[in-house]
Amino acid sequence: MSQQHTMNGREKMKRFSLKAILLCVFTVQIFAFSARAAEPIRIGYIPVIGSSALFVIDGKGWAHDAGLTLQPVRFTSGPQALQALVSGRIDAYVAGVLPLLQARAHGVDVKVITAASVEELEVISRGALAALLTQNEEKTPASADIKTLFETFKKQQSRNVRIAAQPPGSVPDTVLRYWLLQQVKISPPLTNSVSVVGVDIDAAQQAFLAGAVDAAILREPALTVIRNRLPESKILATGHDLMPDQPGSVLAVVAPEDPAHRDWALKLGQLFVRATTFLSEHPEEAAPFVTKVLGGGLLSESIMTQALTHASSHFISDPQRIVKGVAELQNFEAEQGLLRKTEPVDALFDLDMWRQIQK
């Protein structure tokens, strides 16, 4: 009887030990899964108003509510973000679309899952160039008149018009050159009448405010800052003038169909659309979140509200709206010798995921 009791005790101990081991394994798996789920999504972004959906998502706490941990990584130009994509330092990207084609040319499986904005970029003028524009026409003149304006400026000032952009390969640089050559019809090379100064975003705004250049291709909130500081400045070309449905910022994800990325990419895309709609419909409510990131302690919330209100109609989500423009700008870059070869534009867009995001 005692021997039987001892055996039963041993059996119970074995069963208890097995349960304890299984419980420990299960607990470790749960913690491992939680750790994986909580891994930060490294999102490269450029500090412009087209990236505002990302700031709204963070400010509203929507990512946390969706179980996502976002780790924003700031860049000052598309080529910088391109380097990060190629080196695998970011998982997602919120910035201009054109550098993504170059990333794909380097073998990076990055795809656009939603758009963020269109017609972001405008060309603003100051000084003698703005004065000429005012003398000739109170509203933005036709492209043909811009060519005459530049010629008159060169005769009067004995030098080219200087326009600040961002580095070659960036969206602002490409859009500016496209406008000058394709729309304004300035004969190449541009250096005969225009000098394009390639600098980063902050430097372009500062160069304009300091009078080091006559014009600059900029986005909001820089445009609103300039209008407030230099009321005599004039818009030389609106975003629509530069190119109708001009491709702006996008949300792109590295390998969105990868099982390790798919769930969070879909959630992030849905949040992005929600935030883009919020920006379009309630710019004044979005202003505090955008000011926190783009203001740098220097811009007031009222200035940001003005900028967002001005840009509200440009916040869009449908990536299909920019496919044609992306193809057109890529072909232009190839013609200008900025690309060795073109990439299939359709392959850049994950329209299947876009359709799922809409559901």
List keywords for this structure.
359 residues, alpha/beta, 5-stranded mixed β-sheet, 16 helices
The helix count comes to 16
Briefly note the structural class of the backbone.
alpha/beta
The tally of beta strands, per DSSP, is 10
Give the C-alpha Rg: 26 Å
| Uncertain ranges | 20-37
User: Proportion of β residues?
Assistant: 5-15%
What topology, given as strand order, has the largest sheet?
Answer: 2-1-3-10-4
Average pLDDT, all residues: 87
Share in helix: 40-55%
First-last Cα distance? 68 Å
Identify the overall geometry: globular
Biggest β-sheet: count, sense, barrel? 5 strands, mixed
Instruction: Give the ordered list of helices and strands.
Output: HEHHEHEHEEHHEHEHEHEHEHHHHH
Descriptive report:
There is one protein chain. The protein has 359 residues and is an alpha/beta fold. Helix content is 53%, strand content 14%. It has 16 helices and 10 strands. Strands 2-1-3-10-4 form a 5-stranded mixed sheet, sandwiched between helices. The chain has a 5-stranded mixed sheet with strand order 7-6-8-5-9, sandwiched between helices. Helix 4 runs parallel beside helix 5, helix 10 crosses helix 14 and helix 12 packs across helix 16. The longest helix is centred in the N-terminal third of the chain and has 36 residues. It is globular and about 60 Å long. The chain starts with a helix and ends with a helix.
